[in-house]
Write a structure and sequence with these properties.
4-stranded mixed beta sheet, 4-stranded antiparallel beta sheet, about 350 residues, single chain, 1 helix, mainly beta
């Protein structure tokens, strides 16, 4: 009996040792690795890459064209610039970078971002452009200036550290030059015109159309501007008053708009009025639009105003006409202005 119990004990120990090993529990073997997910499910064997070279470009202030090599096995790639003065063009595996001239007084930068289909990480190319060797020029010179007929000069201030300017004019009656430093960093553009007033044999002034010239100013690669020069001759302003009454333009006290024709050789003119119930504006080179507001319903006093047409180049050169309300008791359209119900 004791021998049987001992044999049974050995069998139980053997079973206890074999069972854990068969179930795989508690072992030191590495677990099975997870399956690899491809970068593109349609082409599991391909991993897409993107690289650019160089990753930065430097330009001088004149700008120019440089290229960047784009290396990728992706089907498509794109490039975008952060600044309008830095333009990009794609061709095969080459990215062309074109930079405009930097006419400012400061260095400037841009970033080009390159992306490729199937690549999560974009690449960047940093663009740096120098300023124009520290040169600058600012001015109050407008795009246009109008002179009257007299011989005269006009001065425009220039704040600049540029030494040499080139100044040209398209017409001999108009000359221009730069006056050097009035003070440190300050110059002047001076424009001169000759007399443009002619008299005929009888002593009457001839009416000529305005004459035009263009002055062009260039300062290195920093400043390049043109100004249109206009010179009026002896100004004529003739108002067509054929529809006036007793020398006045009459408008309904209910409010009305009419046009007045003006014949003039003045290059630029503006109409004005002294009345708050009247508005005037220039429609074209020969037409003034005059509009009145309605007069208060129970006000029987006729309103009167002056419209002045002024030469923009010389405020002392002007013409004028009068505007007034039409009489309600004469013009049938205005009957009933003092009706208990008002104008209507």
């Amino acid at each position: 009996m004791k021998t049987f119990q001992f044999v049974l004990f050995l069998l139980l120990i053997s079973v206890a040792i074999v069972i854990p090993t068969a179930c795989g529990g508690g072992g030191d073997d590495d677990p099975t690795p997870p399956p690899v997910t491809p970068s593109n499910p349609d082409n599991p064997s391909t991993t897409y890459t993107l690289a650019v070279s160089p990753s930065s470009l430097s330009f001088d202030y004149e700008g120019g064209l440089q290229t960047v090599a784009v290396t990728t096995n992706a089907t498509n790639w794109t490039a975008e610039s952060s600044q309008a003065w830095c333009k990009v063009t794609q061709s095969g595996t080459t990215l062309s970078v074109s930079v405009d001239s930097n006419l400012g007084s400061q260095q400037r930068t841009a970033t080009i971002t390159v992306k490729a289909t199937g690549v999560s990480q974009s690449q960047t190319v940093m663009i740096t452009q120098a300023n124009a060797d520290g040169k600058y020029c600012t001015t109050d010179m407008p795009d246009r200036w109008v002179f009257n007929y007299e011989t005269s000069s006009q001065y425009f201030l220039m704040s600049t550290n540029i030494d040499d300017f080139t100044v040209t004019s398209t017409e001999s009656w108009c000359t221009a030059h730069i006056e050097n430093d009035l003070s440190a960093g300050t110059k002047q553009l001076v424009i001169n015109v000759t007399n443009y007033e002619k008299a005929n044999g009888e002593g009457y002034y001839e009416t000529e159309l305005p004459r035009l010239a263009t002055v062009h100013v260039v300062g290195g690669n920093v400043f390049d501007r043109s100004i249109l020069i206009v010179q009026n001759s002896h100004i004529q302003m003739y108002l067509h008053t054929y529809n006036f009454v007793d020398g006045c333009l009459e408008l309904s006290p209910k409010g009305e708009t009419k046009e007045v024709t003006i014949e003039t050789n003045c290059y630029s003119w503006t109409p004005y009025t002294d009345a708050d119930w009247l508005t005037v504006k220039r429609k074209d080179s020969n037409t003034i639009i005059v509009t009145s507001n309605a007069r208060p319903a129970y006000d029987t006093n006729r309103r009167q105003a002056v419209v002045k047409v002024v030469n923009d180049a010389d405020e002392n050169n002007a013409d004028q006409f009068f505007v007034r309300d039409a009489q309600a008791d004469i013009h049938g359209e205005n009957y009933g202005y003092d009706s208990p119900t008002g104008w209507d």
